[in-house]
Backbone:
């Protein structure tokens, strides 16, 4: 089903359409939130984002703008949360979302370094790389979920990977010696 039609159905209270929007967009929202907060806080914030979005969905005038609108809500929620918590070490608890680890386990040293390096990248690169590397989304999926042009996603992924490699190179070269 076309996204705009799905949004219109959800605006009219269709629970199936609402559920489908969640299925299509929760990974992208998780990546956007994770790019700004700790892993421990991300799941709750994702739920908060969808509650806010569904409450305000009838205010969305252009259903095709849903991806960008939802990502803006996610960015704002994560930023607000960061201001409220004001934790200087908010990114120390990051764990890859796709990893099958228990709640009490800790990330490997390599995963911690990669995630910390991701946090240092500019926002556009950080978000697209989180979607690609953590949420395992394809370039076309990222474009569809964010409203970005496919070319912009490719550029962000390419430049972001270059910056990530450069950020990680000193750590991994030092270990190889």
Residues:
């Amino acid at each position: 089903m076309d996204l705009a039609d799905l949004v219109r159905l959800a605006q009219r209270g269709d629970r199936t359409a609402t559920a489908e929007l969640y299925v299509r967009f929760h990974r992208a929202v998780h990546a956007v939130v994770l790019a700004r907060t700790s892993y421990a806080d991300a799941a709750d914030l994702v739920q908060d984002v969808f509650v806010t979005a569904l409450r305000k969905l009838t205010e969305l005038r252009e259903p095709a703008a849903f991806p960008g609108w939802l990502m803006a809500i996610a960015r704002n929620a994560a930023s607000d949360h960061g201001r409220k918590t004001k934790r200087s070490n908010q990114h120390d608890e990051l764990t890859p979302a796709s990893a099958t680890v228990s709640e009490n386990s800790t990330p490997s040293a390599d995963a911690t370094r990669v995630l910390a390096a991701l946090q240092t990248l500019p926002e556009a690169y950080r978000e697209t790389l989180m979607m690609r590397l953590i949420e395992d989304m394809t370039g076309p999926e990222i474009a569809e979920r964010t409203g970005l042009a496919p070319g912009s996603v490719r550029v962000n992924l390419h430049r972001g990977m270059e910056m990530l490699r450069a950020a990680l190179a000193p750590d991994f070269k030092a270990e190889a010696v």
Remarks:
- The longest helix spans residues 150-176.
- The CA atoms of residues 113 and 168 lie 8 Å apart.
- DSSP finds eight helices and no strands in the chain.
- The chain has one domain: 3-176.
